[in-house]
Amino acid sequence: MEDSTDRMSQLPEFINHHIMSFLDSPKERIRMSVLSKNWFGITASFPILDFDIRKFEGFISFQSLENGDFIDKFFKYVEYTTSRFCHQNVSAHTFKLITRLWDATQVDIVHKCVELILIKGVQVLVIDIRFSYLPSLLPMYGRVSNKLVSASSLTSLTLHGCELPSSLMVDTIKFKSLKLLKLKYVRMDEKMIKHLTTSCPLLEELTLKICGRDISRLCVYGLQNLQRVKFFTACIVDIIEIEAPNLCFLQLGRICGRAPCLNVASCKKLTTVCYYGDPSPTWKGLADFSCSFPYLETLFLDLPEICKSLKLSSQSLRTFVLHSDDSDFEQLDIDTPNLLSFEYTFSDSDSPFAVKRDSVSSKSRMECHHLGFVDALWFKKLRQFLDKKVRFKELKLCIWTFPSEVEELRTIQSPPFELDHVDLEPDCIRNLSDYLAVVDSVLWCCRPQSLTLESSFPSINFEEWIHIVKFTYEKLLLQEDEGQTNIHIVTSSSSNAKKHFSDLSSLLMALPRDGLRPIITFIKEQVVQEAG
């Protein structure tokens, strides 16, 4: 006879709570609560209350969504679950409420639940009101309970689309344990920011996304543990001053008007900066970065279309990612003698710094991700840029569109730039002639010791692919003295298996006609002359 004893419910409660923490779906937690009276009690005291309306929408029927029953059920579930938990003899670890609001009844439920959980005690609090269908509700739901300022157990606080408590500037804030503070789309002024931050002595991460009035001076002082600061605002900010000895990451973005004056020179561990927007006139075109950020190693810079040029000087910079839709190679003046990685992205992506980055090479490397129109003039400017102060050893080119204008380049008597390696990804090019033009243009611009073709050429048939491989091989040989160079070939597949070939013929015989095509690397090797 099978033993049907529920042994899991006999485990210590904290172990069952730990098991439940791996259940991300509210549907799974609800099913568990109705297994037995024991499990009902275990789920009632589960200290992680996660009410994300998007997760609930994933398993509610379309009919319930359409007739509005779902909204009422969601808020009743929030109210019931919170009330049930607050009758247990435990404090909450996490209370997360991400929702939209439709009527005043829902506003009352939000206020009631947040206040109950603050009284009970909570470590991680997230209140995220993404959108209200009634603008008149804004002043009703926006104000967080005054009990927030005395929530001494908080270690993490995230508010989105809310108003800070009215007693914030009057009462003593007791955020003595707070390590993470995120305020997004919250109306604040400089006095409120200063009062908040000085009341969080253990703060490690600060994110401010402010709406509303302009700010004359944003000051963050005296936070010994602060490591990361992110600041976004749709208003004007004149001055940003940060004194935090352990600050290592700073992100600034979307500030209206001109960029603020920055004073972070005392942050000796600040090695990474992300900046979205116009460079400040006080930066002299970023030419004095060594003074403003003397310890900077990684810079992400997103320039608006109106910014046509960039002059950057830094002795410490090692990684530089530049996103610009309209900057020109001719207008880039980069004086960074220790730079190891430069990525230049031209795409219109909403997340310009989401480009996949390999580990930083020991050799200086440039990556260019151009999703727009590339022509012969673009390659001429690239060739001129490679001759500037930063002498790159490796180059990666991701190119989408290219017209056949190679003849124009051939009339220019300019030696190709010497490189150790080139990675070439000609994506979304649909005909053979354009592929060949890309390879021809790259090898007019550069003379690499090795070249990798990373594209699988999805729109090119097998015979055309073979033609591209042969064309690339022959063009690489033409760059060298006849009889002095052999080309060793290495292919690699998704399984990371590598195959080596000593000549072109053996490679062509081994290439698969169907399925995924391997990445091909051509490596130039000097011919060793036999003595005698």
From TrEMBL:
Pfam families: LRR_At5g56370. Residues 116-276 form the F-box/LRR-repeat protein 15/At3g58940/PEG3-like LRR domain. It comes from the Eukaryota. Gene3D superfamilies: 1.20.1280.50, Ribonuclease Inhibitor. This is F-box domain, Leucine-rich repeat domain, L domain-like protein. It comes from Artemisia annua.
